Amino acid sequence: MSVPNLIGLSFLFFFILILVGVYFVSKNKKGITLREIDAFQYLRRAIGLSVEEGKRVHLALGWGNLFTDAFSSGLIGLNILERISRVALFSDKPPIATSGNGGLMLLSQDTIGHSYRSFRLTGKDQIYSGQLIGITPFSYAIGAPLLIKKESVSVDVLLGHFGSELGLILAASERQKTLSIGGSDDLTAQAVFYGAANYPLIGEEMYAAGAYLSNNEMHKASIKVQDYFRWGIILFILMGTILKIIGIL
Amino acid sequence: MKINVPFSIAIAVLSAIIALLGYFIENSLLNQIRSSLLQSAIILAGVALIIGVINMMRVHWVEMRGGKGNKIYHLTFFAGLILTLLLGGWFGMSNPNGYWLYEAVVVPVEASLMAIMAIFLTYLLTKIINRRKDFFSIVFLVTVLVGLLTSAPFLGQEIPFIATGNSIVKSLLHLVSNGAMRGILIGVALGSIATGLRVILGSDRPYGG
Predict the structure, then answer these.
(1) Alpha-carbon distance B161 to nearest alpha carbon in chain A (angstroms)
(2) Could you state, in chain order, the average pLDDT of each consecutive group of 10 residues for chain B (209 residues)?
(3) Does some domain include residue B144?
(4) Do A185 and B192 touch (CB under 8 A)?
(5) Long-range contact list for B65-68, CB < 8 A, 24+ apart?
(6) How large is the ipTM?
(7) What CA–CA distance (Å, rounded) separates B168 from B151?
(8) What residues of chain B lie within 8 A of the CB of A175, using their CB?
């Protein structure tokens, strides 16, 4: 095994070890408290309001491919879809998930279907609940605004892989006066979110969504471990800088 | 799609572990299993795309029959789909005639949308102060303006000390933005790793489990 591969594997092994350790420690104690993030507070409130108003929550999962690292943001979107669909399932207008990838569409339909099954309900309008609306970034960005307008959406949650074309979806959201909350793994998309969304999620905030919207201790533990590793990386960079300045490296 | 939960978790966790180990450890048997798993996943992704397109057709069909939305959009969708399938099927996708519709219609439309989007983004940016009245919104707005001034001439003129050569403002902006970008990417990478590991540990189940 080459040295970079050994380092990579050790890093993952170490990550899992600390993750499991933090999970069991926090489970035995009173749990992990997280700092407040506005976007998640408003999202919780907005979902409740949309159910009361008989309006729809739209979750855009982006067009992340199953075989790229961009798919991880889609996984976060699916996780949130499960939380949203469990709350908004009894609404006159259940949530809609849109995606720009066949795999994400199937997973979104299955996630919503699972929420129905967990309440022993038969899903109505299953073909609408998870839709593929375009398989190229721009066709997706054209299809989503049409859906936002047509389905009387009150909250747009955009969690997944997007590019700059995201501006078209957010402009439609702004025109319809819907609340937009979103995050992406892509830096350009994050900049567009910051400029155009009501509540943007920057950097790793998006990956914390599951921990904030559920009581899953494993999610909360993973947020803690991310923090530990971030501090580790910061110290590593600082040490490297100092060693470089004093001429050792 | 009803999946037996413990079985689906076992399949997902086992496949993920094999794929991950195959990435790091050089072993012929492990690589063979990993490559056959990946090939199966690629085939499944192709099938998922076909199912997605069928779902799209069903949605358009049901909405068109129910009089929901503008009929022109639905008809355009069906016409485009049928024409692309016929041309692609007849000439094959490696033949330029097979994908001329894509190049003649989709590419110009997407290019014009790119141009429109610049206007949309400018419009949305002007509203940022209305949306969020905080310090960082002002920082964001000022950074965008300075960034624009350093990257392109203003009314045909390069502003001295800002846009010219390696100006201090340009260098500072690059330094700060590169540092911030790296910081954000480190956070995203750690988030991606944690998400992937939660799937491997069976805590996250994006397959209805």
Answers:
(1) 26
(2) 68 86 86 90 92 92 84 90 87 80 84 85 81 84 84 77 74 86 92 89 74
(3) yes
(4) yes
(5) B68/A150
(6) 0.87
(7) 13
(8) none
